[in-house]
Amino acid sequence: MLKEREIMAVLPAVDMARASDFYGNVLGLDAPQVMDDENLLYHGGNGTHFLLYKTDNAGSAKNTQMGWETTDIDGEVADLRSRGVVFEDYDFPGLKTEEGIASTPVGKAAWFTDTEGNILNLFQRA
């Protein structure tokens, strides 16, 4: 049954107003559907969405929590940088970013964090 259902990412936030400002004013997402004071539902392309919920546990994950697929990672990175987004630089075995973008056999990727410490990324398939 689950294979036929939409998948929804769920992201934590300590400060809902700060996080909402980031997603709306910095990333340029449309205003969320307000579920209640502690839950905001953001809609993306092609029927996708994610839930932002209030919790003190935000920022504790050390892995990518959500990403967007793009066909123009260089343009998206440039646009987000112009809005104040800072991209992470990594230098791990098998993964090194150059000017915030890593090239891998499967595509290019770039990572940044939101105001709550969640690690987000952009990905462009090869």
UniProtKB/TrEMBL annotation:
Highest taxon, organism lineage: Bacteria
Segments traversing the membrane: none
Coiled coil: none
InterPro entries linked: Glyas_Bleomycin-R_OHBP_Dase (IPR029068), Glyas_Fos-R_dOase_dom (IPR004360), VOC_core (IPR037523)
Residues annotated as signal peptide: none
Domain spans labelled VOC: 5-125
Name recorded for this polypeptide: VOC family protein
Organism listed in the record: Arthrobacter pullicola
